[in-house]
């Protein structure tokens, strides 16, 4: 199973952030994998999540999910 396939499975379950992608898939390059998934024709939605880091600075990160469940089923990502 490729990282892209594993990420698609997680995206089907809901929002996926970079930390969860690292823990469950082992990738530090979630944005790159999302770009590859989008290039295969799957529609991926994104949102910015505000966060206050340990230094008190207001920052944000992106979360992703598949926009339409049926959309991911009709495409296959090459291994």
Jot down its keywords.
79 residues; alpha+beta; two-stranded antiparallel ribbon; 4 helices; 2 strands
The biggest beta sheet is recorded as:
2 strands, antiparallel
**Poorly predicted parts:** none
The helix content, as a percent range, equals: 40-55%
Amino-to-carboxy terminus distance = 7 Å
What's the total number of strands?
2
Beta content comes to 15-25%
How do the helices and strands follow one another from N- to C-terminus? Answer: HHHEEH
Which word captures the global form? globular
Question: Which class do the helix and strand fractions yield?
Answer: alpha+beta
State Rg.
13 Å
- Average pLDDT level: 90
Per DSSP, the total helix count is 4
Strand order of the largest sheet: 1-2
What does this 3D model show about the protein?
The protein is of the alpha+beta class and 79 residues long. Helices cover 43% and strands 23% of the residues. The chain is built from 4 helices and 2 strands; from the N terminus they run H-H-H-E-E-H. Strands 1-2 form a two-stranded antiparallel ribbon. The longest helix has 11 residues. The model has no long low-confidence stretch (mean pLDDT 90).
In terms of topology, how is this protein built?
Layout: H1 3-13, H2 18-25, H3 30-39, E1 44-52, E2 58-66, H4 69-73
Antiparallel strand pairs: 1-2
Helix pairs in contact: 1-3
């Amino acid at each position: 199973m490729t990282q892209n396939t594993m990420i698609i499975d997680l995206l089907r379950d809901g929002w996926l952030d970079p930390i969860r992608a690292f823990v469950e898939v082992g990738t530090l390059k979630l944005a790159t994998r999302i770009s590859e998934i989008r290039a295969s024709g799957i529609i991926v939605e994104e949102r910015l999540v505000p966060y206050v880091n340990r230094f008190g600075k207001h920052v944000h990160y992106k979360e992703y999910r598949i926009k339409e469940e049926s959309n991911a089923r009709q495409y296959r990502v090459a291994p």
